[in-house]
């Protein structure tokens, strides 16, 4: 038996919005420590890794480990049927073919439940090695979303160059080129508004704008975003979800042809 | 051709070994293409009003047309193709080749008859059966590939065997052919429908040998024996043993020697002096060029050379050829998107429930084709 109760269904709604463009379907692995999801997009360029801690839920029970194949589009449809501050409960039997999602309003005057068919999915887990990243950039998530959106008008690829002075985003295309440079903020009132850079070595990598823009769908989940980079390894874009867990996106860099 | 009924058998008992995906999902990969197979496809499929395309003096150009445009399509999708041509056929294939020759002669007769009757569909059918890849075709193709800047390899013997060795050595990601015997030769990954026309919208089928063996619970040697039992190009199979019986026999007796010892001779006739051991050796240790000695290099296309070669007598439109050359050049320039699975190791966990379900359903429903249950992404019933 699996049961999880979340006081704000809006949180899960935002999570689904943040991954549904990259993944059509995904397996949610439930255990007593929480819910995990790891999946690559069809083209195997990016990977979504999500982890929701059991302690972040109002109530969480998982007797046996359970893998649920879920069509995200269908789940989004169900989530559209609730308001953001409804209380939500997800339930499934062991070895179940279906998942039950229940919503109740705060005053308990309205209750609704939905049953969704589960799917058999091929799972392709990736072993991600522990990496000490050369550059770790923390910045406001809305700023990052803005830069990605603005610069993607000019070209398909975005170059992210991180040096001691700061981080530079640049792109070029048919109409010309664009550069945005952010320096580390020295004084700031609120922590979430600042830009901080931890760096051991300068890094410069090129990424596809399309994917970065898809990652930015997670912006409503967190005020800050953390970018981790090292030479010739995938970029990590991380959003912390308050009290509940985090979403990490991995993106393979574009590489120069050698032959 | 290839292994009789192997694709269907794998779809039935190891559906998790087959993945279908769009061509663009294979970007960034180097792929060895069985050239004789693709030339044959082009000669059959690239036609206009039922007849092959020809140059001003009546020489066929279908194969050039196909090679040119479909290679461009692959390159545009970020795939780096390398063509592998057949060398001399192995001795053991002679009886198979003879059979094919006989069939061709039959088709020739049927064609003449159809022409007499003026039956257009019959003429079309039999003229397609007469198609043969000649040495002129291959020579012309090699010339074309050279101008396009696409590498090719001349296998000493069977192209599939050479492809398989190149995949094993990590030189390329997969073998692209329709012949299932690439798996028997030990190619870890086999792609089908790679050189099909875009208009057919066929998804690319990807077969993973390791998953096939794991799900069938077989070693590679047992798998080779199974393929010989199913029917390969190099020797006869046992009459009356179909795919179902073949897999049962292999599961029970584990090797062809054991099967021969235990098989009911009254029911099944084992061919006299059955050369299965030679066929097996051919699959395990085929004649190949050491993949490490091959240098695969993709270079810029020679636009003027292509125009000179394809236009003029061969009747290709110059603007289209120049356009194609530009596309080739563009696909080579700039940066390419990296694949995430080349940075991280893939740990596939086969979906146990799906395999079990496939097993029970195929038993329950013997006539079932590749039923829906095996497809990815279907809701549970």
UniProtKB/TrEMBL annotation, chain A:
Does the record bear Nucleus in its keywords?
A: yes
Which PROSITE patterns is this protein grouped with?
PCNA_1 (PS01251), PCNA_2 (PS00293)
Work out whether the entry's keyword set contains Nucleus: yes
> What Pfam families does UniProt report for this protein, alphabetically?
PCNA_C, PCNA_N
Give GO terms: molecular function aspect only: chromatin binding; DNA binding; DNA polymerase processivity factor activity
Q: Name one GO cellular component term.
A: PCNA complex
Q: Which GO BP terms sit in this record?
A: leading strand elongation; mismatch repair; regulation of DNA replication; response to hydrogen peroxide; response to methyl methanesulfonate; translesion synthesis
Location of the protein in the cell: Nucleus
Give all residue intervals belonging to the Proliferating cell nuclear antigen PCNA N-terminal domain.
Answer: 1-125
Q: Which UniProt keywords apply?
A: DNA replication, DNA-binding, Nucleus
Q: Where is the Proliferating cell nuclear antigen PCNA C-terminal domain?
A: 127-254
Give the record's subunit note: Homotrimer. Forms a complex with activator 1 heteropentamer in the presence of ATP.
Protein task: This protein is an auxiliary protein of DNA polymerase delta and is involved in the control of eukaryotic DNA replication by increasing the polymerase's processivity during elongation of the leading strand.
Recorded family membership = Belongs to the PCNA family.
Q: Which NCBIfam families match?
A: pcna
User: What is the name attached to this protein's record?
Assistant: DNA sliding clamp PCNA
Q: What does UniProt list as this organism's lineage?
A: Eukaryota, Metazoa, Ecdysozoa, Arthropoda, Hexapoda
Automatic annotation (TrEMBL), chain B:
| Compositionally biased residues, Basic residues | 367-381
**Which ranges form a coiled coil?**
94-124
Answer whether the UniProt record assigns the keyword Magnesium to this protein: yes
According to its UniProt record, where is this protein located? Answer: Mitochondrion; Nucleus, Nucleolus; Nucleus, Nucleoplasm
Q: How is the cofactor bound?
A: Binds 2 magnesium ions per subunit. They probably participate in the reaction catalyzed by the enzyme. May bind an additional third magnesium ion after substrate binding.
Extract the PROSITE patterns matched here: XPG_1, XPG_2
Output the GO biological process annotations, alphabetical, semicolon-separated.
base-excision repair; DNA replication, removal of RNA primer
Q: Which GO terms describe its molecular function?
A: 5'-3' exonuclease activity; 5'-flap endonuclease activity; DNA binding; magnesium ion binding; manganese ion binding; RNA-DNA hybrid ribonuclease activity
Domain XPG N-terminal per the UniProt entry, residue ranges: 1-107
Q: Which keywords does this chain's UniProt record carry?
A: Coiled coil, DNA damage, DNA repair, DNA replication, Endonuclease, Exonuclease, Hydrolase, Magnesium, Metal-binding, Mitochondrion, Nuclease, Nucleus, Phosphoprotein
- EC code(s) of this entry: 3.1.-.-
Major localisation: mitochondrion
List, alphabetically, the CDD domains matched.
Answer: H3TH_FEN1-Euk, PIN_FEN1
Question: Which Gene3D superfamilies has this protein been placed in?
Answer: 5' to 3' exonuclease, C-terminal subdomain, 5'-nuclease
Domain XPG-I stretches: 146-218
**Family that this chain belongs to:** Belongs to the XPG/RAD2 endonuclease family. FEN1 subfamily.
HAMAP family (UniProt xref): Fen (MF_00614)
Instruction: Specify the protein name.
Output: Flap endonuclease 1
Taxonomy, top ranks, is: Eukaryota, Metazoa, Ecdysozoa, Arthropoda, Hexapoda
């Amino acid at each position: 038996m699996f049961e999880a109760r979340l006081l704000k269904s809006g949180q899960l709604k935002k999570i689904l919005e943040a991954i549904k463009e990259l993944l059509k379907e995904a397996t949610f692995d439930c255990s007593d420590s929480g819910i995990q999801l790891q999946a690559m997009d069809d083209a195997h360029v990016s990977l979504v890794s999500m982890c929701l801690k059991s302690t972040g839920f109002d109530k969480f029970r998982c007797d046996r480990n359970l893998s649920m194949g879920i069509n995200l589009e269908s789940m989004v449809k169900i989530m559209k049927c609730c308001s953001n501050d409804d209380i939500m409960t997800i339930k499934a039997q062991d070895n179940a073919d279906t998942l039950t999602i229940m919503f109740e309003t705060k005053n308990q005057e309205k209750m609704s439940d939905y049953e969704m068919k589960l799917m058999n999915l091929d799972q392709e887990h990736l072993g991600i090695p522990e990496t000490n990243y050369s550059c770790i950039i923390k910045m406001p998530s809305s700023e990052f979303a803005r830069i990605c959106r603005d610069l993607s008008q000019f070209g398909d690829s975005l170059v992210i160059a991180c040096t001691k002075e700061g981080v530079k985003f640049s792109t070029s295309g048919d109409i010309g080129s664009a550069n945005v440079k952010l320096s580390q903020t020295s004084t700031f009132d609120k922590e979430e508004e600042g830009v901080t850079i931890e760096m051991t070595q300068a890094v410069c990598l090129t990424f596809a704008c399309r994917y970065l823009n898809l990652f930015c769908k997670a912006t409503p989940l967190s005020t800050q975003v953390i970018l981790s980079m090292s030479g010739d390894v995938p970029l990590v874009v991380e959003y912390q979800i308050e009290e509940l867990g985090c979403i990490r996106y991995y993106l393979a860099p574009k590489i120069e042809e050698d032959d | 051709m290839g292994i009789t009924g192997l694709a269907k058998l794998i779809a039935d008992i190891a559906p998790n070994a087959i993945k279908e995906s769009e061509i663009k999902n294979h970007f960034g990969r180097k792929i060895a293409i069985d050239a004789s197979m693709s030339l044959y496809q082009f000669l059959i499929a690239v036609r206009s009003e039922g007849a092959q395309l020809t140059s001003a003096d009546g020489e066929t150009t279908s194969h050039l047309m196909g090679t040119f445009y479909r290679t461009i399509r692959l390159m545009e999708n970020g795939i780096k193709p390398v063509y592998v041509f057949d060398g001399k056929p192995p001795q053991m294939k002679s009886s198979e080749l003879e059979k094919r020759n006989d069939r061709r002669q039959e088709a020739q007769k049927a064609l003449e008859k159809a022409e007499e009757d003026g039956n257009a569909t019959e003429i079309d059918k039999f003229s397609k059966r007469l198609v043969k890849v000649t040495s002129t075709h291959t020579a012309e193709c090699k010339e074309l590939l050279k101008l396009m800047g696409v590498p090719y390899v001349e296998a000493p013997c069977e192209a599939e065997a050479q492809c398989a060795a190149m995949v094993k050595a990590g030189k390329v990601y997969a073998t692209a052919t329709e012949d299932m015997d690439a798996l028997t030769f030990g190619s870890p990954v086999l792609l089908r429908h790679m050189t099909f026309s875009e208009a057919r919208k066929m998804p690319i089928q990807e077969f993973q040998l390791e998953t096939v063996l794991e799900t069938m619970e077989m070693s590679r040697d047992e798998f080779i024996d199974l393929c010989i039992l199913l029917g390969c190009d190099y020797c006869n199979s046992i009459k009356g043993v179909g795919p179902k019986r073949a897999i049962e026999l292999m599961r029970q007796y584990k090797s062809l020697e054991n099967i021969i010892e235990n098989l009911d001779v009254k029911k099944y006739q084992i061919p006299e002096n059955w050369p299965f051991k030679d066929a097996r050796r051919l699959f395990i240790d085929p004649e190949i060029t050491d993949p490490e000695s091959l240098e695969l290099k993709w270079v810029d296309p020679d636009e003027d050379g292509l125009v000179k070669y394809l236009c003029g007598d061969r009747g290709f439109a110059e603007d289209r050829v120049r356009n194609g050359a530009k596309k080739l050049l563009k696909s080579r320039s700039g940066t390419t998107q990296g694949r995430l699975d080349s940075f991280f190791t893939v740990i596939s966990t086969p979906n146990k429930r799906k395999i079990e379900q496939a097993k029970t359903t195929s038993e329950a429903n013997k006539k079932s084709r590749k039923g829906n249950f095996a497809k990815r992404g279907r809701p549970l019933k």
